[in-house]
Design brief:
Blueprint: E1 31-34, H1 36-43, E2 50-56, E3 66-72, E4 77-82, E5 86-91, E6 94-99, E7 104-108, E8 114-120, E9 124-129, E10 135-139
Antiparallel strand pairs: 1-7, 2-3, 3-4, 4-7, 5-6, 8-9, 9-10
Length: about 140
């Protein structure tokens, strides 16, 4: 499947409800670093709704400005932070980017922990996330 990139205005980007997008050079919150394996598991074959490019300024976890590619998947987002130190190798006519440090992956959004908070009749169940307060209702009548 081919991706098509089109320019849009900031106001058109729909961030997940549990995410605070912050400024252009800040990292969205809440976030946590994840492994390559978790990145592959979480993104799987999903297609993101929006992609945002940022240059992240001096957070505690970074030592300088870093390039950051954020893909929004609906209820969460994934960020890839690229190292500054890289070189391009020409191997038999093919160019390969070689990073000195590893790419870093971040999960942006709440890692929901839902618990049932109410039942209405036999089939309406309301659940609430105790991390961010998000609620949803399920009709289990079939």
């Amino acid at each position: 499947m081919a991706e098509k990139f089109v320019a849009i205005y900031d106001k058109e980007i729909v961030w997940p409800a549990s995410v605070t997008p912050n400024g252009y050079n800040d990292f969205p919150e809440p976030f946590r670093e994840i492994s390559v394996d978790e990145y592959i598991h979480v993104t799987g074959s999903q297609i993101g709704y929006f992609r945002v490019f940022r240059q992240i300024l001096d957070l505690d976890i970074f030592k300088c400005v870093k390039n950051c590619d954020i893909t929004i998947y609906g209820s969460f987002a994934i960020a890839i932070v690229y190292p500054n130190d890289w070189k391009c190798n020409n191997i038999k006519g093919e160019y390969h980017i070689k990073y000195k440090d590893k790419l870093r992956y971040f999960y942006i959004g709440c890692k929901h922990h839902y618990k049932e908070v109410a039942t209405s009749g036999n089939c309406m169940h309301r659940y609430k996330c105790f991390n961010c307060g998000h609620e949803y209702t399920v009709d289990s009548s079939g």
